[in-house]
C-alpha cells in the first residue's frame, strides 16, 4: 500500500471511529438516569454563589433578603465580595464555591446570586462526580444557563432555570419557586392576567405554529445556548420541548442566533419551542440601523413559521419580574392554543 492510500484510509477510519464514539457518547447521555434533588423546605440552608459576574453590595443584600423572606437560612463564603475584572473572582475561586456548596452536608440547595458572564469558563474544571454524588437543587438563569446545561448533561441532575438571588421576586415568582422546589408540584405555566394590559410588545402573546407536543424540557438563554454548540456540554434537542429567553439583543442579532440553531439542525429535531419574553429586543429609535430594521415579531415568524412543530412566544420565562421556575429534563406538554406549558412530572423528590 502506498503512503497516500494509507493516509487516506487512516483518515477515513479515524473519522468513522470519532463518529462511533460521538454516537456512543450521545446514546450514553440519552440513557443516563434522571436524578431529582431533594425538595426544599423552610428552615433549609441555601448556599449562595456567584459563578459568573460579581454582585454589588446592594444586590448581595437583596439576594439574602429574598431568600430569608422565603424562610431559608443563607450561607456564603468570603468569595462573595471578590472581584476580578468582570468576574466574581478567579475561575478557581468561583469553582471552589460551587464545589464547596455541593459537598457541604449542611447546604440543602444552591442559588446563584446573579448571572452576567463567566459560568461557561468553569465547565471543563467542574467535578461532575462530586455533584452526582451530592445532588441538590441548583437555581439560576441567564448566564447560569451554561451551568444548567453542563451539569445536567454530565450528571443527569435536574437543574432549575429560575430566579437568581438578586431577582425581583414577584408574587408570581415566589409561588412558582415554592410550587416546583418546595411542594414538588408539576404546575401549568401560563401568562399572568396582568400582562394583557402590558403595551410593551415584548410581552405579547404570539402563537407562531399551532399544536401540542410532549417531551423532556430543556433550554435557557438564547445567547448561551448558541455559545455551547459544538462543546461537550451542549444538549441534544431531539424529542424535547425547548424553552428560550433573551434580553437586550436587536432583532437582527436574535435572527442570527436563531439561524445558527436552525442551521445546526438541532431545532428541527425538537418536539416544540416555548419562548419566554425577549425584553429589550426591539430596535431602538436611536439605532443607526433603525430604518433598515424589522420587529422582533417579524423575526420570530420568519424563523419559526415554516416549522412543523408547535411554537409559542410570550410565556413568563426570562429577564422579567414574573419568572417561572422550570426543571431541566422532566416531561412537559406545550399547548399553543391554550398558551400553556404544563409540567407532567415534578422536578424534586
Can you characterise this structure?
The protein has 349 residues and is α/β, with parallel strands linked by helices. The protein has nine helices and 14 strands. It has helices at 3-30, 57-69, 91-103, 128-133, 145-155, 171-182, 222-227, 251-264, 296-304, and strands at 45-49, 73-75, 109-112, 137-140, 160-161, 188-190, 206-209, 212-221, 240-247, 272-279, 311-313, 326-327, 331-335, 340-343. The strands form two sheets. Strands 6-14-13-8-9-10-11-7 form an eight-stranded mixed sheet. Strands 2-1-3-4-5-12 form a six-stranded mixed sheet, sandwiched between helices. α2 (57-69) links the parallel β1 (45-49) and β2 (73-75). α8 (251-264) runs parallel beside α9 (296-304). Residues 1-31 have low confidence and may be disordered.
